[in-house]
Structure formats: C-alpha cells, structure tokens
Write a sequence for this structure.
C-alpha cells in the first residue's frame, strides 16, 4: 500500500455529505448576494504570491510548494486564493463584463505547515472577493455574508472579531511605534520575531510562540494610529455592523498573516474545534490590484477553510435526506423487468439499487438493509403475470401490491422531499 502524503486526506462517503452541504449552502448564499463563480488553476507563477501575499509572510517564506518546472519556470501550488482571483480579475478585465465584480471560488490550497487537527498541507477554501467598492457599507455586507454562512451551516458558538490595520499612509507610524515599544525587549522574542521587527514589524502579531505572547500583548494597537480617513472608515464599518445587527469584538492583534490587508480585517472563530479555531478570515486589500499590475481598484473578501467548517458543523448537518429504493427480483424474466424498473426509477429522479450476482431473495433483502433502503420493490413470476410490483416498506415491513404502470408515481409520492 502506498499511503497518502502527510497532511493530505481523502474525503470519504459519510463525511463527503457534509462537504456537499457546505458547498450547496454557500453556493446558494453567494448567489443571493450577487456573486458569480470563478475557477482558476491550482498552479500559478511563484511571483504572484511573492508579490501579492508578501515576501516577508510565513506563507511565502516557509510554506509554499514552489518548484521549477521542466521548462525552467518557477511555479507554485497556490497557498491561498486572493492573488489568483485578483490576477483573473485583471487578466480578463472582469469589470468590463460585470457591473459589480463579485466573485467566488471553491478549491484546494497548499501550505507546507505542521499538520495537526484542523491544519493540513492540502486543505480547501471557499473564497469571495468584491472589487471596486470603497464605501464601508460593502465591508459590512461582506461581514454579513460571512456571518450568514456560519449561521446557515448551523455553526454555533462563533465569534466575529474585527480590527483595522490602517493604510500605507498611517501604517509606517504604527510600525515605528511597535519597534519603539519593543525597544531592547526585542532580544527576548523568538528569532522569527527579531527578523520581523527588522523587516515587517506588523508580522510580529502572527507569532505563535507561547513565550512571546505576554510581550506581544503589551504592544500598541493599530486603531490608535489610524489616519483620519481610516478612522472614519472603521467607524462607519462599525456603524453598519450595528445596522446589520451582527455581534462582534474588536481585537487589536488581528493583523492577519498576509501583507496586502488595508483597513478592515476580520476573522470568525469557532468555540468547539480545538486550537485551530479560525474558521474564516479576510479583509480589505485596497492596493493589491494595482500592485499586481491592474487598474487602481480596491477590494475586499474572505476565505473560509472547508475542513474547519465541516468540523464545526453540528452532527446532523451531514444527513442528506437520501431515500434509496432497492429492486429485488426472482428469475431471469423478472430480473430483466427489474432492470427496466431500475432505469425508470433513476430517470424519474429517484435513487435506485439492484444486485446483479443472482443471489437468493433473502440475500437481496439483506443487501437492501445494508443500503438502508426505504423501500424494496420485489418482482417475481407472480408479479410479472399480474403486471404488479410488491412494495415492502423496509421500516415498517408492511407490504403492498402496486400496478407496474403506477409504481413510479407511488414511489415519487412517498419519497418526495427526501431527495432533491
Ligand atoms: P488564511 O488565508 O490563512 O487567513 O486562512 C483562511 C482560512 O483557511 C482559515 O480561517 C482556515 O479556516 C483555513 N486554513 C488556513 N490554513 C489552513 C490549513 N493549513 N489547514 C486547514 N485550513 C486552513
């Protein structure tokens, strides 16, 4: 046996239903908010993320699956979706074809991290992005969408945390204040943080080393260093959140691990899934489109980890409402008739099964049990002669004789609502 690669996982029947539910619920929700789906390649040029996500971020420095391909090009498996979606927005001038460019994506992302519960090397995200709207009302709308997503998935015990990280005009003063506040103490931080203090002090907030946390907690808050327009923007975001009636908490440590964020940043944390409790994160990225060679357009979006949503969803959320029907037959003529019935059931939109190995009726009924069939439709010589089907309700064991001509209506009436 050649096992799967560490940090990757197969999503098997029993669990996949929960994934389907996440995809169904979010797709319907995104479309209600005016988003359209985009699918981009899993491989991109390495420089897209070096430039987009940021040269000094952990993702780019430590976690990218980057390699030189046979043509000598530097390629990477995408570690996140936003730079790819910005690239697609620019490359296809999406603002020409979409009056309000709002796009979403589902797909695998790749980061060489230390695997643990809720943290994988191949994981999956759903991602939404809106371009070209600077009004803080859109920040609140995006937050409302994120909140609606976790609510519709039935995820309880969640907390929305928000912050503002300012803009290129006010960020330098904040970075300076961080370095100043650290002073000599910087030498007590981990090697990564010492490097961060020199290259990109904001990234110190990404530090996960336990000993560093007490000192990091004493550092200044970005919201105390906002310029007038960032301050006004953030105040308006908060006001709109009140209009939406969404509860949230301010967290000054929430700078997020990527370089492109400006102004609003946010995460949703789940209480019941262990240490990796951030199920969704995002923010505004007003300079990124231009930085990646596009027009000067602002943007905002979020990504949620599907593995973590699935983990945080209530148990019953996987229940899929499937209502299998089993066709059992005795004898060759009845078997042919059963195959035709199987075809008709499936054409009628019902889930139908049959067993081909010619076993006894008893073992066919055992198979029906194992499949958790709701009904068994039994055809033997007698049924054939009378043009009927024996229907057995597998839960109550009640049996009924139903004319072959009416069997589809009979099944549909009993199964309707169970299957989509
Ligand atoms: P990020 O782009 O790091 O802000 O991640 C956005 C979301 O993706 C997080 O809130 C997680 O739900 C999910 N996520 C990020 N990294 C991983 C990972 N290694 N394994 C599983 N989920 C992840």
């Amino acid at each position: 046996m050649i096992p799967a690669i560490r940090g990757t996982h197969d999503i098997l029947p029993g669990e996949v239903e929960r994934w389907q539910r996440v995809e169904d619920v979010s797709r319907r929700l995104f479309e209600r908010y005016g988003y359209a789906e985009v699918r981009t390649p899993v491989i991109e040029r390495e420089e897209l993320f070096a430039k987009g996500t940021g040269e000094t971020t952990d993702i780019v420095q430590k976690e990218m699956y980057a390699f030189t391909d046979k043509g000598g090009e530097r390629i990477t498996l995408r570690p996140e979706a936003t730079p790819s979606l910005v690239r697609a927005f620019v490359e296809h001038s999406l603002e020409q074809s979409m009056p309000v460019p709002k796009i979403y994506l589902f797909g695998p992302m790749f980061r060489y991290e230390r695997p643990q519960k809720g943290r994988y090397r191949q994981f999956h995200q759903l991602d939404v992005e809106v371009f070209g709207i600077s009004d803080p009302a859109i920040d609140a709308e995006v937050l409302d969408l994120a909140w609606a997503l976790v609510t519709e998935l039935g995820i309880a015990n969640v907390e929305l945390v928000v912050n503002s990280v300012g803009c290129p005009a006010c960020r330098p003063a904040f970075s300076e204040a961080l370095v100043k506040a650290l002073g000599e103490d910087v030498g007590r931080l981990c090697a990564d943080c010492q490097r961060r203090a020199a290259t990109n002090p904001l990234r110190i907030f990404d530090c996960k080393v336990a000993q560093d946390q007490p000192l990091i907690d004493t550092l200044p808050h970005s919201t105390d260093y906002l310029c007038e327009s960032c301050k006004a923007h953030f105040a308006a975001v908060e006001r709109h959140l009140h209009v939406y009636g969404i509860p949230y908490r301010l967290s000054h440590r929430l700078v997020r691990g990527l370089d492109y964020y400006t102004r609003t940043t946010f995460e949703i944390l789940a209480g019941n899934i262990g240490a990796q409790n951030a199920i969704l994160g995002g923010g505004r990225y007003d300079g990124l489109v231009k930085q990646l060679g596009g027009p000067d357009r602002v943007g905002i979006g979020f990504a949620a980890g599907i593995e973590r949503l699935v983990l945080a969803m209530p148990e019953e959320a996987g229940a899929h409402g499937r209502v299998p029907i089993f066709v059992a037959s005795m004898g060759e003529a009845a078997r042919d008739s059963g195959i035709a019935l199987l075809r008709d059931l499936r054409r009628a939109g019902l889930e139908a099964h049959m067993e081909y190995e010619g076993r006894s009726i008893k073992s066919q009924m055992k198979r029906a049990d194992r499949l958790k069939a709701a009904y068994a439709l039994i055809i033997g010589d007698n049924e054939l002669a009378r043009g009927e089907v024996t229907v057995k309700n597998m839960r109550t064991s009640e049996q009924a004789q139903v004319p072959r001509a009416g069997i589809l209506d009979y099944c549909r009436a009993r199964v309707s609502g169970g299957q989509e």
Notes: The domain at 321-419 is CATH 3.40.50.800 (Rossmann fold). The mean pLDDT is 94.
